[in-house]
Amino acid sequence: MTKSPKDWKPQTRMVRGGMARSPYGEISEALFLTQSFAYDSAAAADRRFSGEDPGFIYQRFGNPTTQMFEDRLALLEGAEVCRATASGMSAVHVALQGLVRAGDHVVAGRALFGSCRWILSQWMPRFGVEVTFVDATDPAAWAAAVRPNTRAFLVESPANPLLEVTPIAEVAEIAHQAGARLVVDNVFATPVFQKPLELGADIVVYSATKHIDGQGRVLGGAILGGAELMTESYRDILRHTGPALSPFNAWVLLKGLETLDLRVRRQADNAVRVTEALASHAAVRRVVFPGRPDHPQANLIARQMSGPGNVVAFDLGDRARAWAFLDALGIVDISNNLGDAKSMATHPSTTTHRSMSESERLEIGLTEGWVRMSVGLEDAGDLADDVLQALDKV
Ligand SMILES: *Cc1c(COP(=O)(O)O)cnc(C)c1O
Question: Is-above-0.85 flag for pTM?
Fold first, then answer.
């Protein structure tokens, strides 16, 4: 008997999931660059708009190429529904806004991607939504932050930039006891190494800009979850506020998914090699990587993640040393992106996390000596040599 896509292993899902062939029988998924769709008759248009006929209406609502990307990622994540968005930030923004209204309260980890932190600390309060930031590694801190009006928890795990890990199953239980939904930003772990829905999360969000593209080309994002919640909380906000993903970008991301597993596993292997080089050098005070036994939460990582990801953080002591290291790199680029085929390193306190105040940065342990590196697909030996020669110049 032929297996149904739900019985496919992840790598098969990544290559074949969501494929909807046109009558031409193309092997590579078709790119439908069309904003709107024609109906056979006025009555057919009526049926389409009433929802009786499930076809496409307008690119802001859905598009065949975008839907192939959504269906493939949903199958990979084990979610009933995926909705693609124009960027990771539009995914995070909609994922939160769809769950709250004025007077509600949100709890979030205090170490977050910079723009996520801005939405919570600067934007949502303008609409009467209160936010509490907690130490995301500590379940007791989540429980203590709960109020009668708490509607959502936002977790980023591993978190940017110092790779702290949240016990997702425990925090999901606390959220559900409080009547709140748990949203997990799973970018650093990737769909290959962590399955938040299986751990109890209600919603998973991605910046597809990162590993899913993985070759530095396009922006994209996704929101995934159960059918009822996705429809209730997100269908209308996505249709009417317009964060739709371009079908061109959806096509690039769809092809990116085909090689995601291969790329992410190789990047993780390379990251292990790079962290060994870093840890061997006297200029490095501390290395943080989810794949190392000396990560403070190594036991939790072993339970919750099936691989370490490709992002590494390390402390060189002060800004002058961190900058000297970056400036001495020959292969690795100085750049704030991550998940790319090309390795890149950044100085978080003056780039990705500069909009935080110094005291906020110190609260998450981000001093000026830290460098964050996204390990790419180059030869691991070349990367280790590049890092070591740069450390020699620190
Ligand atoms: C990059 C990133 C985002 C934002 O994604 P964009 O595609 O740049 O909008 C959100 N969360 C995390 C963890 C990220 O790394």
Answer: yes
Looking at residue 114, its pLDDT comes to 87
Calculate Rg over the CA atoms of the chain.
Answer: 21
The angle, 0 to 180 degrees and rounded to 10, between the axes of the packed helices 380-392 and 260-279 is 30
Q: Which atom of ligand 1 is nearest to the CA of 337?
A: 1
Structure confidence by residue, pLDDT tens digits, 290-314:
999 999 999 999 999 999 999 999 9
Task: Tell the residue number behind the tokens 């992002």, with chain if given.
Answer: 311
CB atoms inside a 10 Å sphere around CB 44: 13
Q: Is the same domain home to 176 and 269?
A: no
Q: How far apart are CA 269 and CA 253, in angstroms?
A: 23
DSSP assigned state of 2: P
Classify residue 359 by burial, with Cβ atoms within 10 Å: 0-12, 13-18, 19+.
Answer: exposed
Is the shortest distance between the CB of 230 and ligand 1 below 6 Å? no
**234 and 99 share a domain?**
yes
Residue 209 Cβ < 6 Å to ligand 1: yes
CB of 189 shorter than 6 A to ligand 1: no
Domain with residue 282: its CATH number is 3.90.1150.10
Query: For the residues 71-80, what does the mean pLDDT come to?
Result: 98
Amino acid, single-letter form, for residue 13:
R
